[in-house]
Amino acid sequence: DSGVTQTPKHLITATGQRVTLRCSPRSGDLSVYWYQQSLDQGLQFLIQYYNGEERAKGNILERFSAQQFPDLHSELNLSSLELGDSALYFCASSVEGMSGYTFGSGTRLTVV
Amino acid sequence: DQQVKQNSPSLSVQEGRISILNCDYTNSMFDYFLWYKKYPAEGPTFLISISSIKDKNEDGRFTVFLNKSAKHLSLHIVPSQPGDSAVYFCAASDQNQGGKLIFGQGTELSVKP
Questions:
Q1: Which residue of B has its CA nearest to A34?
Q2: What's residue B99's pLDDT?
Q3: What's the average model confidence in pLDDT over B11-15?
Q4: What one-character-per-residue DSSP string does chain B give?
Q5: Which among A11, A58, B43, B85 is placed 20 to 30 Å from B105, CA to CA?
């Protein structure tokens, strides 16, 4: 157990629907990062939050949004889902800086 | 534009021999580099890192080499063990851009007994 908890582990939904992925960071970590891993692709950075505020944004679609709550857990909202959104979505957390993130085990999203 | 590239999708090595995984990058602003290891159904696990002020960092059986002029880094695993079989991701960051990491596509290492 890495200490970063992601729920649910698996999600199957239909095109056009909306889903929410949840991440609880490791205790003491203030930064949360979201990554997407599509088939045969590396991990693509989506967005970073630090202590409740958006810190950096990557190639995140407008249909996607995220937030970090006062208790530091984070949610990634994906709406108007398309088949191409099927992927593994990873959350990671860190205290600060580049000593190496701790990743959760991911949420596998399948859009049918 | 793929700023971090791992050109070998897979690598097969005999147990006890050296595994060398390679990674190239294009962004000269990258100043911190990491390797992650990933088993199926698990998230990536941090393995080893190197700052751009160094050219080598060693941790047990794992050594990372950085060649800034060639924009190339490599991970050496000696000796390789069957438990090292996993997907290895190279990642890079510009520390002035916060914690964002740019990952390569990964190399699947298979260590055969």
A1: B100
A2: 79
A3: 98
A4: --SEE---SEEEEETTS-EEEEEEE--TT--EEEEEEE-TTS--EEEEEEETT-SEEEETTEEEEEETTTTEEEEEESS--GGG-EEEEEEEE-GGGTT--EE---EEEEEE-
A5: A11
